[in-house]
Amino acid sequence: MTNRPLSPHLLDGARLHWKWGPHMLVSILHRATGDGLALVGLAVLLWWLGALASGPEAYAQFAELAVTIPGRVVLIGLSWALFTHLMSGLRHFVLDIGAGYELATNRFWSIAAPLIAILLTAGFWALILNK
Amino acid sequence: MSKGTSIGRVRGLGPAHDGAHHWLVQRFTAVGNLVLMIWLGASLVALPDLGFETVSKWLAAPIPATAMILLVVSTFWHARLGLQVLVEDYVHEAGSKFGALVLLNLAAIGGAAFGIFAVARLALSGAA
């Protein structure tokens, strides 16, 4: 490896090598939630689809686990990751077309995207749990 | 520094050696994920309950089954591309990188195949 810049590592030894701020937070959240969804979210999706295809007993097993406290934490966590990744992904689309780089605008959406995601998560679960 | 333009001297030096196509497909599948995930979320909210009877009957119908298969393809493809970037950014040794990408391809294609099979089985078994 040469001395070209490295990809953002959260930890460089014991010290952060990026200064915390909304922009780097939304960036690392995008990566963390995306990789979390890829590794855990898709596994849960397959488990759910596999349980459906296997029949009522397998599905009941999935459903029982889903309403335990750890089950709820995982599912709510995954939906939060999905909404967070979705919102920061939409932010990326805007940046991709070359818009939203003004300092104040960029900072505003870096803060707003993860906050909107939390509201969407809360709204989604309010609808699911009030069935 | 001798010949060539400045872009010509740096082209292909990134960890993946190329990327415009990867970058575009990541965005094409992102749009697919966006549309299909809104569909899935809205469907889960709209279903009267999330018990086996209701959910399996719903998913066995042609349009939900097709949408779910597309969702599996789009999300697994997008995830494969995203995890590839993770590997390229953090696995620097060529052999390990190659091995990680081989495993990633097997897991992504295998996982998607399982998901598609599960939906197809539900849709074609006459459960509905």
Strand content of chain B: under 5%
CATH class of chain B: Mainly Alpha
**Count of discrete structural domains of chain A:** 1
Portion in strands of chain A: under 5%
**Number of domains in the coordinates of chain B?**
1
Helix content of chain A: over 70%
CATH architecture of chain B: Up-down Bundle
- Rg of chain B over CA atoms, rounded to whole Å, is 20 Å
Distance between the termini of chain A: 56 Å
CATH topology of chain A: 3 helical TM bundles of succinate and fumarate reductases
Under CATH, the homologous superfamily of chain A reads Fumarate reductase/succinate dehydrogenase, transmembrane subunit
According to CATH, the homologous superfamily of chain B is Fumarate reductase/succinate dehydrogenase, transmembrane subunit
CATH architecture of chain A: Up-down Bundle
Count of individual beta strands of chain A = 0
Tell the overall outline of chain A: elongated
Largest sheet of chain B: none
Largest interface: A-B, 33 and 36 residues
Compressed to H and E, one letter per element, the order of chain B equals HHHHH
The poorly predicted ranges of chain A are none
H and E string of chain A: HHHH
Helix content of chain B: over 70%
Protein described:
The complex is a heterodimer of chains A (131) and B (128). By secondary structure, chain A is an all-alpha fold. Chain A has a single domain (22-129), classed as 3 helical TM bundles of succinate and fumarate reductases. Helices cover 76% and strands 0% of the residues of chain A. Chain A has helices at 22-54, 56-66, 69-96, 103-129. In chain A, α1 runs antiparallel to α2 (56-66) and α1 (22-54) runs parallel beside α4 (103-129). Chain B is mostly helical. Chain B contains 5 helices and no strands. Chain B has helices spanning 6-10, 20-46, 52-60, 62-90, 94-124. In chain B, α4 runs antiparallel to α5. Classes of the chains: A mainly alpha (131), B mainly alpha (128). The A-B interface holds A 1, 4, 7, 9, 31, 34-35, 37-39, 42-43, 45-46, 49-50, 52-53, 55-56, 59-60, 63, 82, 86, 89-90, 93, 96, 124, 127-128, 131 and B 13, 15, 27, 30, 34, 37, 41, 44-45, 48-52, 55-56, 59, 68, 72, 75-76, 79, 82-83, 86, 89-90, 92, 111, 114-115, 117-119, 121-122.
